[in-house]
Design brief:
Length: 315
């Protein structure tokens, strides 16, 4: 049996839409950001769009699907309702060969949904209505199941709303009890701005692995450039992975910096999921005890693959 990884995150159905920059301006949307919206704004936006594609999403769920694509052994835990989008979510994870550890039931909130606006420059802007996904709580965690994994991967977005922060801390406690490595993604720069102090404390005290892009890392460290951030991060004895888009990726490990070039692509179609799939490639090699450079290369290869198609799934 190959080594297993458990991802815990927001279970969100992605709705892909092509728009122009004027649409973003008219609807007060900041290009490249992820904005949390309420039910009313979600319903209003849905009236204005033409749907291109519907897919199961959520950052960590995307990473787990990428791991399954590489014949890894992933599981995912996220909260859904037994509504139309919940059924789509469950069916899609099964199709992607990701073991889904949540048993859906009738809830008072709908399954989480994210509208992903893709502009002609392939940048993505997201409006996310978390719905019931933000209600993932300690009661949804089966303590015995958690013990079966080598790594538990959590997303920064879990800190945004609802009961998930308490659940996050509970999972870290369980992981420490069972000598399981805890990894976390920083999710996006605005998420880091909202929770910078907590994220930095998590890095110092609880995490084994942190993944973020250079803007998120600089925001976390309150530095203007990556060199300054890396200088500070080298003092922390953790594995820190930094993605730098076309400039490749770096890892800070045992007080040294390991660099990797990006994988060249013919044509970019959609940047959705680039970071999520980078994490997939990285973790598959990491679980196979590969050296860090090979882990970074695998992440780059998978990120290059996903940006040449629309959506965050390779299956």
């Amino acid at each position: 049996m190959s080594k297993k990884i458990l991802g815990i995150g927001n279970a969100v159905v992605d709705i892909f839409v092509k728009v122009n920059d004027i649409f973003l301006l008219r609807n007060n949307l900041l290009k490249g950001s992820m904005k949390l919206i309420e039910k009313e704004e979600f319903a209003n936006l849905m009236k204005k769009i033409k749907i291109e594609k519907v897919e199961t999403g959520g950052s960590v769920a995307n990473t787990m699907a990428g791991i399954a694509y590489l014949k890894g052994n992933p599981s995912f835990l996220g909260k859904i309702n037994s509504d139309k989008f919940g059924k789509i979510y469950k069916k899609n994870l099964k199709k992607n060969k990701v073991s889904f550890l949540y048993h859906e039931k009738k809830e008072n909130l709908p399954t989480g949904t994210s509208i992903i606006f893709i502009t002609p420059d392939y940048e993505r802007t997201m409006c996310t209505y978390l719905g019931v996904s933000s209600q993932l709580s300690i009661d949804d965690i089966n303590n015995d199941l958690v013990k079966d994994y080598e790594i538990i991967f959590l997303e920064g977005y879990l800190w945004d709303k609802g009961k998930s922060e308490e659940m996050f801390r509970h999972v870290i406690h369980l992981a420490k009890q069972n000598i399981i490595k805890v990894a976390m993604s920083l999710s996006d720069i605005f998420c880091v701005k909202r929770h910078r102090k907590e994220f930095f404390n998590l890095l110092l005290n609880d995490l084994n692995i942190l993944i973020g892009n250079e803007n998120e890392i600089n925001e976390l460290m309150q530095k203007n450039n990556l060199q300054e951030s890396i200088y500070e991060l080298k003092k922390i004895n953790k594995l820190i992975i930094i993605t730098k888009s076309k400039n490749g990726s770096s890892a800070i490990f045992n007080n040294e910096v390991i660099d990797c070039e990006s994988t060249k692509v013919e044509k970019v179609l959609d940047l959705t999921g680039a970071g999520d799939l980078f994490a997939s490639g990285f973790f598959v090699e990491y679980l196979n005890n590969a050296d860090i450079k090979k882990c970074l290369q695998s992440g780059s290869d998978l990120a290059a693959k996903i940006i040449q198609k629309i959506g965050a799934r390779l299956n």
